[in-house]
Amino acid sequence: MKFGVVNYPGSNAADCYYIFDRVLGHPVSMIMSEERGLDGLDCVVLPGGFSYGDYLRAGALAGIAPVTEQLAEYAEQGGLVLGIGNGFQVLLEAGLLPGAVRRNKNLLFRCHDVFLRVDNNALPFTGNYSKGEIISFPIAHGQGNYYIDEQGLAQLEQKSQIVFRYCTAEGQVIPAANPNGSVGNIAGVCSEQGNVFGLMPHPERCTEEILGNTAGLRLFLSILDWWGIRQQEGVVAHG
Amino acid sequence: MAEQKPVWMEMGLNADEYKKVIEILGRKPNYLETALFGVLWSEHCSYKNSRPLLKKFPTEGKYVLQGPGENAGVVDIGDGQALVFKVESHNHPSAIEPYEGAATGVGGVARDIFTMGARPIASLNSLRFGTLDDPHVRHLLSGVVAGIAGYGNRLGTPTVGGEIFFHSSYQENPLVNAMCVGLVDHDRIVRGQAAGPGNLVLTAGAKTGKDGIQGCTFASEELSEETEAPDIQRGDPLLENLLIEACLELMENGYVVGIQDMGAAGFTSSSAEMAGRAGTGMEIDVSLVPQREEGMTPYDVMLSESQERMLLVIEPQHEKTAKEVFDKYNVEMAVVGRVTADGIYRVREGEEIVAEIPVQALTESPVQHPEQREPEYYQRLRAWTPDELPVPENCDDILERLLASPNIASKEWVYNQYDHMAMLNTVVSPGADAAVLRIKGTGKGIALTIDGNSRYCYLDPRRGGAIAVAEAARNLSCVGAEPLALTDGLNFGNPEKPEIFWQFHQVVEGMSEACRKMEIPVISGNVSLNNESKGEPINPTPVVGMAGILPDIEKYITSTFKVPGDEIILLGKFSPQLGASEYLAIVHGMEQGAVPDLNLDDENKVQLCCRKLIRDGKIKTAHDCAEGGLAIAVAECCISGKMGATLQLPFTGREDTLLFGEVQSCILVACAPREVDGVLQTAKEMGVVSTVLGRTGGLHILIKDQNEGILINKHIEEMEKVWRGSIADHF
After folding, report:
1. CATH, residue A76
2. What is the rounded CA–CA span in Å between residue B662 and residue B628?
3. CA distance A18 to chain B (A)
4. ipTM for the complex shown
């Protein structure tokens, strides 16, 4: 399975690259943002960071970069796309996922661990979690306050597009467990088809024992497992 | 109307210095030349007041690859790798414009690191503010923290540690000291030298604008109502990000002869210093410098402090390659001059020569030897004893008040705004005694800390200086790391006041003594003087940034209590005293008395013992017994571990002294019951006093005296609420 990590200027692309290259030992390439370099990839990751400095709205410039334009076609054809943190913001800006993010409710950047409830474990990205399971990932963002109107929210819920929600250690989805003011405590959403997934928390920051938490590793293993099963079933890969 | 000052005085030179300039040149300097001397001979650039003192620091040691004098110091960490680090102050800009002042401080020190060929891997900061009841202080704090976050987070370098202290002496003059740490292979270290006459001088990065002109002259003055702040520079962390990648790519491929950040005094200092180090001359044509605005004079170009600009020296045949690499990252580059052999610093504007000065004259300023005098307060305040002080009735309340003191309370409102996890190396996050990072691809780790106690330094600068070094090292030892070297941030008031210079001198003596005894050399640093407002100086504030090595990254520990039933042991001789304590300041409103004794032999032993116990896997918890005394140290272990503890103190003395008195060279540790004998035995063999105090467990912190009398009995959740909320509740 071949991964690509998109490197917008200002992205922390090296971190995601490291996960595939060193932690998982899988082929991965760095895709420059000014190029249309997605051909032949099985999964594209938009990493965290501050694309183009994010001096404008987070993800706004990256949302119209050449690689992002190609990404829309790639996703349309069913390619797997994972957006983490800033990568999620880019997906929202590019219209590949519904909704938008605003500044965190307390207007401050926040970097700490949060608890998440897995609401949808039927995605290529979440198969290794159980539905309703409580996991812990770190967050690190200033604009993670997810917004969608009521109609949109109803649709997300109806189509199981809400993947992770912020919750307490015991799994309660309540305002006190919401780090940024997101509607419905939403931490991550997917596309209707389930092949595009974006989340504010950082699974790539919790994949190794030495860093104290491996909950995020299972997200990446989910992708590999899903891919492996598809291969066995003889499904033709994208690209 | 005030009389017009002569130009040289406007430029910050004194009469003697101006005379000296005329002597050197054999003529009167023109306007630009006067300005060049003014900035390069300012304290900020030349350390003219502090140089003789700084010579006292030991700067050599078995791990040192590069000591002071370069852009940053370098220390060996084995496997052909080295750490590059430095602390730098941005106090005055942060007082005027807290966000940009702090942000550009972070950016500036990161440039000092990558110019050595190193990739920045961690940032730390040491902050000082006035008291939080003042809305202006809250404005400064939130602005500074947002600035550090805004720049550091965008840079993608994790901010892994720091410290903050609040005191009224910083009310209008906050301190912002930023430290950056980089990683480099030995054979990739690059230096800031303009070697090789005929080589090209180029600029890369931002265009030169009119911002920050004369910033270092400004930084070398006291703040007052009349202070005319220059345009404060604004940072562009995205550009810095790209500059790092482009410069590192050029350096890794060996295309860079020398490189330096254009920091204080911009073009002027970077180019003159690079030529000075190499013993060469340099010729710059200001008309070739990319300029942000129209109508800039040679003076504007030479003194601009626009951010994110680098000066590089390369061999002529590599110009095309350099251009290609900078183009790739969308970074502007221009050839602006060349290295010469004549030792002359020559500035042109096209054909016209606008300044011509011997390089050495610029970089070797006359040294000042300010007068020094022991301040009147020194003997008076240290003579204080607690005899008259009432013994408190309710120590639970006092514990709560101390936990709520912003100096002791959780700093998470601050450090949660910093991305402390980027780059995937952070093993121990902020809030611990020291941050721990793994070094990818090896089995080793490093520990980093920054520390200083300015109350101690006010009351006893010499001992306070020594304690700053000892405490920073103790922080590292508490996670299991061996200290390698330190960088110092020396912040004081106006050195022309004899009492201030005395404080400075005493602090340096104390620090040097500790460095020597502990074999921890100084490899880089920064001096910031004239930290005063309305004529009132800050407390003398040396801060020590220190790096240590963990040969086996798996063998680190933290300060949290881990499981119930662990035995709590105090390593070190427990001789607490109330003088200079946080308790005395918070509860009794007094800042006086003798600063805790420091015996450096004992200090070395206790740290060595702690590190050995960690390496042998005998202890699970270690925490420095510092501000707030033993009770606070225990409370912090309890809160972070969400676990209670029961202790009985086998000591005699006043209750408040035992609980809240402060002491040096003591480390609180915890271990499994089966390890107790081994721990005590090891301590004994290493000449360290050790005392079993109690056990972990339950949901209360319960501290009894030796007669079973209860001194403290408090639920940990209650403590946690106070401790966690104290700073956040101000915002």
Report:
1. 3.40.50.880
2. 6
3. 9
4. 0.96
